[in-house]
């Protein structure tokens, strides 16, 4: 899985004209790669390689998302109800953790609200739930409930962490093994990944 951040800006050397979706992370507004070229390169790779590469796009603003729709459309299956039927929908929670906040967990109320939101919006595509590692490690029972309730979406967990987040590797390892390595994507600092000592889970 390839993960990419998208902002509106300009390709270096092509600063004239309106901003376009580019591969960059705020506050940067210039890049050596446009989203259109990135998608084309991935598509060319997938056309000649049996082991396909998936793409996770992280839009850093609603305008970047809206201006990317026409670029993404050619890589989605035509004639289906959803705009991007092959896209994996990434859902998560706003969290306050790290720094002076070193303890926390996902509550049953939060998990229940997520399940209701998925049902209310008639989601019918693959879903990955983005969970913060330090909170997820304390939340195995409710996250297992979430996975069971949304199993029809071929759901997975994207476990992420900011640099310096306190993480209990033993608890997080237990969660990952219980959910199953095939249902986990890791987006954590290398030091955390090394502490987990897992046999090659998928990475985002």
UniProtKB/TrEMBL annotation:
Q: Which organism is it from?
A: Operophtera brumata (Winter moth)
InterPro entries in the record? Menorin_dom
- A Gene Ontology term for the protein's cellular component: extracellular space
Q: Which family does it belong to?
A: Belongs to the menorin family.
- The UniProt record lists the Menorin-like domain at 1-76, 81-191
Question: What protein is this chain from?
Answer: Menorin-like domain-containing protein
